[in-house]
Amino acid sequence: MKYYKLVLNARNPKGFWGKMMIRSMNKGHYQVTGWGLEHIKIKDNFTILDVGCGGGKTVFRLNEMVPKGRVYGIDYSEVAVKKSKKLNKKEIKNNKVQIDNGSVSNLPYNDNMFDLVTAVETYYFWPDKVNDLKEIYRTLKLKGKILLIFEMLEKENEPDKWAEVEKLAKIKAPKESQIRENLLNAGFSNVKTYTKENISWLCAVGEKE
Ligand SMILES: C[S@@+](CC[C@H](N)C(=O)[O-])C[C@H]1O[C@@H](n2cnc3c(N)ncnc32)[C@H](O)[C@@H]1O
Fold it and tell me: What's the gap in Å between 59 CA and the centre of ligand 1?
């Protein structure tokens, strides 16, 4: 019962189970996020956006990596925004962090604003992958990068691995080739994907050239 309620709240956390889901995501995604972040160079003055920021743990973590920079988090779930703001309260006061309520499809940010945009375990839910990636592309500076992090990947040798979650959350675990293709179709260059052995983690990096 608990498992079902949590999964049902992964798309757009709401109410009590939404809060529970956010708490469990902050913990549960910590490792995969750390692994993904190893694939990118982050300078201490970077301006970074975390899309689908959930409970704000990645924002918190990124902010510690950019003492001279600034980190933004955005999520369309009000519950997620509230929790992110609570977790990052001190750095919001210091004007180092900003958390916004909004959708990846229509980001409330200027063109050419970010050095890096991260998105952890949220891509599955986006309504129009290529256009949403294009929207991120718009907000990146020239030479800026996108980092997509996934725990669920469709692999040839385990096609049904995510069937239960897919059905419950109404999502589809993507194939590595689809992620690459969507990034290229959105305009990204130097697209690279990395996978972790014996587990279906994947991270994808693309650059605005
Ligand atoms: C599985 S959670 C991951 C949260 C966080 N990134 C983490 O790793 O803990 C997915 C998050 O993406 C958000 N989300 C889903 N679709 C979105 C969209 N179209 N625009 C903005 N946020 C979205 C959800 O509200 C949810 O907080």
Answer: 13
